[in-house]
Structures are given as structure tokens and as C-alpha cells.
Design goal:
The chain is elongated. The chain is built from 16 helices and five strands. With 505 residues, it is of the alpha+beta class. β2 (436-445) and β3 form a beta hairpin. The relative contact order is 0.06. It folds into three domains: 22-175; 184-390, no CATH class; 406-504.
Amino acid sequence: MTTKPFMITPLWVFILCVSLLPPILVQAESSLPYPLSEAVKRQTMNMNEIERELEQQLMLANQPISPQQQVLLAQFNQGLKENPQLEAQFNAATPEQQAAFMAQFGIIMPGVGQDQQFAFIQQRLDSVIQDLEKSGASREYAQVAELYQRVEVAKQRILDIRHKEAAKTEQGLSANNTADFPEFEQHLQAAVNYVLALKDAVLASREIVALDQFRPKSTEAWLIENKINGVVLQRHKLGLDQVPRYRSEIQQWSRQYQPLFQRSEKYSKDWTDLMRAFDDVSTALKNESPESIRVLAAVIDHNLVAMRFTLTPMTNDIDARRIAESILTNRARYPERRSFDAITQIQTNIDLAFRGYPEQASQPLSEQQAKLDRANQTLAQLIAEHARALIEDQRMPSDAYQGEDKETLRDKALNLVKKRYADKEIHSVAVCCAWDHTQYSEKVRDSDGREITRHYDYRDNQIAVAILIDDVDAKMIVVGVRQNFISNQETVEILTERPMLTKNL
């Protein structure tokens, strides 16, 4: 008969190990007194809940600061920088006091400012110990010792979370503090303004392009002032002219503020978004501006043609020739007055087009300016020629007055003209007419309502004095003399000046 060898199975291993345990330990794990056993069960469940809650708090403390909180922190720092006294009080406060103060401004950092909740957890931890002590539990029991250990770990966990909270608050404030970059806010706003200026230029460019659909026939003025505001045109010019400077400054600031961007997610994102916006609008302006510049050039060219047609219309266009005659006559006779005519309207719209013309389009702008200069020279020449035609038949009046005071009148006129035109040669003097005597009365109401009678009694005379300008041009100065018999006063003044040709004197 063969005997099987003895084999040690896993069950036998467990039985053997249990039999070798110290008697006291076996008793501690298997036969806790009922009150102690219930207390251990209760506090084990409590500790499980407390640890889960602390784990959640730890997760909150480990979360990064949200973009919204970054914005609030940046604004909060700016407010502290503007109020040094408040900044000093804040820096002297404890982390929890700082958190409470920040909470008033809506800044609730993840896991920060949980004093009340941590106090409640601390009370629950104290209750765990009190319940175990009340039950008479001895730390000789492994389960009781484990609960005591878990309580200590939980208290340390609270300290760790508080430390993380304080560090996060400090980190968030420091990262978004621009105190070491005092000009950053100013430069940031300037960069934003640059983007807005380029956006306005893009919109203006589109408005200018839209003008092309309102082009009239070549003989009529292109009145862009009815379709687009002069301010819009200036925005177009400003944007195009300033793009290189804007880009240069923004690139310089990007390098200058890299240390701030590396530590502040908020400012880094803001600047990245700003650069993206700048690139978008500058690219759009670059792509769209050639067309808007073309339209502005077309406006100028069109109106220069309209100006030429207005001043020199076709011979068979009687109405147009009458208008041209009126314009030239008015400008020739009254060169010192501001004219309100078709040429003025055309010139206004040319000036508007130039207001939107960028300097960066230097070659086309030079061409348009040269065309305008030639047109203005032509206008001046036409006016000068017309002025000479108007005075071709201008003559001095006859020296017909033969009154006894003729020489006195001549002397009064000559004295005034010599004072006014001391550097000019006097050619001749003519007292053309007899005195014009005026005498009448009228009833008027005074300021206090009374009706009064006013009497008028005066006489006027005119003396023409011819002065030489050069070999070709002369001028007739008309001097008026008025003798007022009511006030017994005499007035001697220049009434008008009329150009003449020297050959007609």
C-alpha cells in the first residue's frame, strides 16, 4: 500500500497562520465589546465622509485659476495700485482676511475662504475622538488606533489645503500684478485703440468703394459729400498711414512684456487675442484698400473733368456758357470774397477725396496732387483773362464838376489815397458829378415805445483817383465825401476799387 505525501493547501496555510497569532491580537480583532464596536462603526463612517469632503476640497485647491478669476484679479490689482493706503492694509492682512476681502469684490478663488466649512470639519474630527473616548476604546485595538491615525491625517490635510489656498491667492495676485510694469495698462489700451482705428479704416474703405455705384456723368460733379462723412474719410487715411507705426509699437511691447505674459495666463491670453485681432484687421485693410484708393482717385479725376467742363463748356451749350460767364465774372470782380458756385462745390468734393487719400499711396497721391495743381493754375488763368476782358472798356469818369469846392474835394480824396497807397503813383483825379443832396424825415418808435421823428439832411459826392500798379494794370479808387448837416460832420472814405488797364487812362 502506497502512502500519499502530505500536501499543505491554502486553507491549511490560513489555519496555521491564525493559530500562530498572539492570543491578545486575535481577541482584539474578533471580540470588541458591543459599545466599542458600535462606536468604531459610527466613526469609521464619519471619517469616510470627512475624508471624501477633504478630498474634494483638495481638488478645488489644486484647480487652476479660471480666466474669469484672472480678469477679476487683474482688476483688483489695478484698484489696489490706485489706492496705496488700501494696498498697504491688504498686504498686512492674513491670507484668510485677504480672501474675505477679495470675496467682497466677487473674487472667490477655488478652495479659498472656506473657514466655516473647515471649522465644521474640525468639530466633526473632535467628535470622532470624543465618541471613541466616551466608549472607553483603547488604542490597543487596531481599529481604534487606525481611527486616531486617520483623524491626525485629516487635520494635517486641512493644514495642507489651507497652505495651498494661501499660495494660490498669493500666486494669483502676483501673476496678475502689473506694479513692475507701470506703463502696461497704458500700452494695452493704446494697442486696443490701434485695433479699433484699423477696424474703422476697414469700414471706411468699404464705404468709399460703395461710392463707385453713384458716379454721375462726366459733365456733372461727383458729390461724394452726400454719401460719405468727412470723418470717415479721415479714418481711412489715418488707418492706412499708421499701420507700420502701429505694428512696430505692438511688436516692441510684445517683447517688452514677455515676463508678464509668462507668469499671467490672463494677460498672455488678452495679448494673444489682441495680436490676432490686429493681424485680422491689418490684413483686411491691406487687401481692401487698393480698391478704395482707386475710387478716391476716380473721384478726383472725375471732378477735375467736371471743373474743366464747367469753366469752358461747348460753344453750343448756351446755358452752360452763361453759368461759366457768371462764375468767372463774380470771381474776377470780387476776388476777396468767398465764392459759392459750382466750382466751389467741385473743389469741396475734391478736397474731401484728398482727406481720405493715404500718404502711403505716395505715387498715386503725387499724380492726383499734380493734376489738381494744374487745374487750379488753369482756373486762376481763366479768371485773370476774364478780369482783363471785363475791364477792357473801363474808363475814368469825366472831370465834369465845376463847383467852387472842386479843388477842396480833389485834395480830400488825394490825401486819403496817398495815405492808403503811399507806394503807388497817382495818375489822375476826376470829380465826376455835382453834389447829390438828400433830405427827408421819418417817424420811428424809440426803445421805450415813444414815437419820435428823425430828420435826415446830407449830401454826397464821389471822386475817382487813378493809381498805377505797373505798366499794364492800374486801379481806380472811388472816394466818397458825405456832409451831414444834422450832425455837422463830414466823412471821407474809400467806397470801392476798380481794376483798369493802364492803356485806358
